[in-house]
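It is worth pausing here to work through a concrete case rather than discussing structure prediction in the abstract. The textbook approach is simple: state the sequence, then state the predicted structure, then interpret. We follow exactly that order.
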Amino acid sequence: MSLSSEWECMSMNPGQTTMPATSITRPAWTWEASPLMMVTTSLVIPKAARNHVWPVPSTILPLVRSRSYILSPWPCVISCPCKGEVKVTHPLSAGMSRQSCQRLWRKIVLEKFRRLFRRFRKTLMEVPMGTVGIDHLAMPTANAEKLIEFYKRLGFEINDEAEWRAGEANIFSIQAGDSKINVHPEGYTASLRGDTAVPGSADICFVWDGTAEECQKMLADAGVEIIRGPGPRKGARARGSLPAVSMYARDPDHNLLEWMVYL
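Step two, the predicted structure:
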């Protein structure tokens, strides 16, 4: 139940409308004076009729608010002569100080915002299908040795390198988090491949776990030239709603590489 301070005038003493100064009641605290909350110990006081339009007929039963409470839309307890005490949802304790109610208000509002944020985040992260990520990509190279050396300098791990060197595997892969890039060395043509796959045709974006300055230093220490950035960029996390910057470089095959840094 919601209450506001703009109540119609009511008679404190039914039958006596000749003395409006004592028969008109209004809330002691106005919503405008306290936009977030209204807490009083005695919520009705007599007011002059000239300040509150005209008196209502004396047949209207008065409302007597018996406890301190937080105004709309939070719970309250109301007593009415015709129905007795009416409890609305969860009544607050009587006699709460204004400071206590303010602290309780902040706690309730913060919790509601947390719940809304969790619901919003869950909605953003929900995927309406069974596909949840990328396992691997594949790209050909014109010089496997140079490519391996380049990515090792950047800190990547090379899977199946020993097996490939021993002739036990046709390809090797570059590990990046929970995903990998399968590399098809020169002289090897996969039976299933992109029709136009050639060295230098890949465009790959990595996620950097750190600051943009740290990423720049890592690339500089590895002798990799940044060809653009850092600059603001729209990434994939939270469907592009998170702020991020990125920088670009190229590998020995001239594939375009990007490092995304979320702020």
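Step three, interpretation. The CA atoms of residues 204 and 257 lie 5 Å apart. Residues 1-118 form one domain.
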